[in-house]
Amino acid sequence: MPLYATGHNQPGFLPDDGTSFVTRDWQRARDSLVEDLRDAADATQTWADPHDCDDIPCPTYGDDCPDNLAADLRMAADELAALQPDTPWQATVAGEAWRLDDLGDHCPNCGYPLAQHGWPAAHQRPADGHTCELEFDDDLVVAPPEPDEFVSARSAPELSHGRDLEGGLGIDP
Q1: What is the bridge-based pairing of β-strands 3-9 and 21-23?
Q2: pLDDT in tens, 20-52
Q3: DSSP code of 168?
Q4: What pTM was computed for the model?
Q5: How far is residue 11's CA from residue 108's CA, in Å, rounded to a whole number?
Q6: Is the link from the previous residue into 59 a cis peptide, with omega within 30 of 0?
Q7: N or C: which end of the chain has fewer CB atoms below 10 A?
């Protein structure tokens, strides 16, 4: 069960952790990046005043025409949306390097090996035994019960999405 990460950065630079999205679910990673590309297209297109850019390069903005950059971002989003599952992807669009990476079966932050059904949200770094600070978008966070609720997280599958904290099916031994 590999991990997947998405993000974008300037070409030639290391990825910025602030733009990374790490998940165990390829489709969730892909959908997140498609949404990011479409949001970037919408934002980019708002930069330009209405203009006629039937020619390439655009007579008003040249190669940096927001309408053309937005169209490129939307085309990249459509290409990404059509990918087969578990396929990594990368493209340089509108001056940014966009990526969906397969990180394999080890934590990218500390090297902790994945178990068959994942790892607990607070796994420990193999090197020193301290808790790894990497958090996934889909870590199972169980909200504490309200004071008048007398249900534990293990007996309330709706609180933990049907899974216990160790990634099992929420069935007590």
Answers
A1: antiparallel
A2: 788 888 999 999 999 999 999 999 988 878 887
A3: S
A4: 0.69
A5: 21
A6: no
A7: C
